[in-house]
Design goal:
Blueprint lengths: L1 H28 L4 E2 L14 E2 L26 H6 L17 H17 L4 H31 L13 H24 L3 E6 L4 H5 L1 H11 L3 E5 L12 E2 L1 H10 L7 E6 L3 E7 L4 H20 L21 H8 L15
Parallel strand pairs: 3-4, 4-5
Antiparallel strand pairs: 1-2, 3-6, 6-7
Helix pairs in contact: 3-4, 5-9, 5-10, 7-9
Length: about 350
């Protein structure tokens, strides 16, 4: 048993040595670790004290205010910054009010392209709606400025000499009728006649006979029927051109639809008045407008366009209603060549 006594003596000596050294080492390395702490329920009474090693002593958190959190600095994302500039804008940015026509064109095409490719994308459709609303607002603004400018400067209005309102047309009707009568008189003075190309087996040509009879009666102009097939109608028996003599002129004038009415003036001037079934009013209006345009071009010696006679439909060159009759009575300059029309 001597070895057991020896081992026990060594253990006791080791424990005594550790007990003597450990508190001193702990106090040398961490002198702040020693603290008097009140255990729960002791109310800080003496006797409930001890040593705390390898950790901070308990802290009473009831008297410590939490440190304020730093405010987060919110910066605009890079995408939002890019959408504010026209150079970096894309269709995904949505609508951006354009300040140049070039960017407006770019934005229009990009937004429409995205909506067409992704029609179920609500943002893509809404962007196009916003763009359309902007365009409409711009158009409304321009229209109001247009109206204001027209009132302030009547020379900007094309209806000043050619009224289009019902009231204006009613007032101008009598003058217009007198001018039409002067035009028919001028056509007769130039030796002009009307040529109506038809076919005997064409039901539309037969239906055009009554309007043409009224047209001949209203204008006082002679209408010749040029039948391309079969005999002429009885209403034009006195002024009939047979198919044998009508086919070549019809071919040269490119008559592909019947009935077709031409105004013929000496010096080989052919002006197509209408093609197909039409009314008397339309035939009269076309004849009047085309004849006035031809006279205007002839007085200004405008060059012809191909085989067609020169026409001047510019409203700035057309005389006003009060001057039209004097204009129609003017003597035309001598024709230098022959012209024909197949338009």
């Amino acid at each position: 048993m001597s070895w057991r006594k020896t081992a026990g003596t060594a253990v006791l000596v080791g424990l005594a040595t550790v007990s003597a050294i450990w508190p001193a080492a702990a106090q040398a390395t961490r002198p702040a670790m020693q603290a008097a702490v009140s255990f729960p329920g002791t109310s800080g009474q003496s006797g409930a004290r001890g040593y705390w090693f390898y950790q901070s002593p308990p802290v009473n958190t009831h008297h410590i205010q939490p440190a304020p959190r730093p405010r987060a600095v919110t910066a605009a994302p890079a995408r939002k910054r890019a959408c504010r500039h026209t150079a970096t804008w894309t269709a995904r940015c949505g609508f951006l009010t354009p300040h140049s026509f070039a960017f407006q064109t770019k934005e229009r095409d990009a937004l429409l392209h995205r909506m067409v490719i992704h029609p179920n994308n609500q943002k893509a459709v809404k962007a196009v709606q916003r763009y359309t609303r902007w365009v409409v607002d711009q158009a409304i603004t321009a229209t109001r400025v247009w109206q204001y400018n027209t009132v302030q400067d009547p020379s900007l209005s094309g209806t000043a000499t050619a009224p289009i309102s019902t009231y204006g047309l009613r007032l101008a009707f009598s003058t217009h009728s007198l001018n039409k009568a002067a035009a028919w008189q001028a056509i007769r003075r130039f030796g002009g006649v009307l040529i109506l190309f038809t076919k005997a087996d064409c039901p539309y040509c037969q239906g055009e006979v009554p309007p043409m009879q009224g047209f001949e009666r209203d204008t006082g102009l002679t209408i010749w029927q040029a039948s391309l097939k079969g005999p002429c109608d009885k209403a034009f028996a006195r002024h009939c051109v047979s198919a044998a003599r009508s086919l070549l002129p019809a071919h040269l004038l490119h008559v592909s639809i019947v009935p077709t009415l031409f105004l013929y003036l000496p010096k080989n001037v052919w002006i197509r008045v209408y093609a197909g079934l039409t009314t008397t009013e339309t035939a009269e209006d076309n004849l009047y407008n085309f004849f006035v345009a031809w006279r205007e071009a002839a007085l200004h010696k405008l060059k012809t366009s191909g085989a067609a006679p020169a026409m001047d439909f510019n409203p700035r060159h057309r005389p006003n209603p009060e001057q039209m009759r004097a204009f129609l009575q003017k003597q035309l300059p001598r024709q230098t060549g022959t012209t024909s029309s197949h338009n």
